[in-house]
Design a protein that fits this description.
By secondary structure, the chain is an all-alpha fold. The chain is built from 17 helices and no strands. It starts with a helix and ends with a helix.
């Protein structure tokens, strides 16, 4: 049986959070900070700057005017929200060395971004502010699978084979093969990286949202988004089947079944836009 904290300890040496995230955190937490200082930190990373400007000028935000500078983006979006978006947009460059026979990284990030967009659309629909954190929580929800594929590759191959042969969800077989799931491993990684508790809880319970104690709404949103983007077939983290959606989660969001078709259409449209914007093929290459 594998221990999530041990897997993560072995993994951290090969995959750490991007330096830009820590620099942004430091600048944001500085009591004497300014939009100019935060903008300068972002501008140190040309790739991040370009993606941030693309993002704030996309339908993801829907600003009526064109945003031309990083300072404008920080002012309009907010420094903490920019930090969260920076985390999501730089995460794709953090993981290397995942065996190709286990995971097509293009498909992994396609699914992760799609889940983030789905969570954002749902959050906006139910009137939740700060939808960026729902987006980031969606992007990070399956991050534990990358730890599995990297540090438990042989066990992961068995899990994938059994899932295909037995027509069962991978998450169920993970418990049988390694004694824990990618969800628990993901939580351990986000904890080791000292990311906010709501990201940790969503990662831990996105397959069992009824267990979320501190952030049940955020977990329910990502759970529903994950199910929807699986059904739309936007990439995969390895899972071959559409996860079961818990009815209680749908009711928790106070949505009607009549809204589902429209939501799926909106999510599909926005996912296609953001995948094009992120040039997902280049990122995964």
């Amino acid at each position: 049986m594998l221990v999530p904290s041990k897997l993560v300890a072995d993994f951290k040496g090969t995959a750490s959070l991007p330096v830009i995230y820590f620099k942004l955190n430091e600048a944001i937490n500085d009591p004497n900070t300014s939009i100019h200082k935060i903008s300068n930190v972002i501008s140190e990373d040309a790739s991040l700057s370009a993606r941030l400007l693309k993002l704030v000028n996309s339908p993801f935000y829907g600003f009526p005017q064109k945003i031309g500078t990083i300072s404008e983006a920080v002012f309009l979006v907010g420094s903490q929200q920019v930090r969260d978006v920076a985390l999501a947009t730089t995460m794709m460059k953090t993981f290397t060395g995942i065996p190709g026979d286990l995971m097509d990284m293009e498909k992994f990030w396609m699914h992760s971004l799609a889940c983030g967009v789905g969570a954002k659309v749902l959050a906006v629909t139910i009137g939740e502010p700060e939808f960026e954190r729902f987006f980031v929580a969606g992007v990070l929800h399956d991050i534990g699978r990358l730890v599995m594929y990297s540090k438990a590759s042989e066990e992961s191959k068995v899990i994938l084979q059994r899932s295909l042969q037995e027509r069962r969800p991978m998450v169920d077989i993970e418990y049988e093969e390694i004694g824990c799931s990618h969800a628990e491993i993901g939580r351990a990684l986000l904890d080791a990286w000292k990311l906010p508790q709501y990201y940790q809880e969503v990662a831990a319970f996105h397959h069992s949202p009824e267990r979320a104690q501190q952030y049940p709404l955020e977990t329910a949103v990502v759970h529903v988004a994950d199910t929807i983007v699986h059904s739309l077939q936007f990439g995969t983290s390895g899972e071959l089947y559409v996860p079961r959606m818990q009815k209680d989660c749908w009711h928790k969001l106070n949505l009607s079944l009549n809204q589902l078709s429209k939501l799926m259409h909106v999510i599909e449209h926005e996912v296609n836009l953001i995948l094009k914007m992120f040039q997902i093929q280049e990122v995964a290459a």
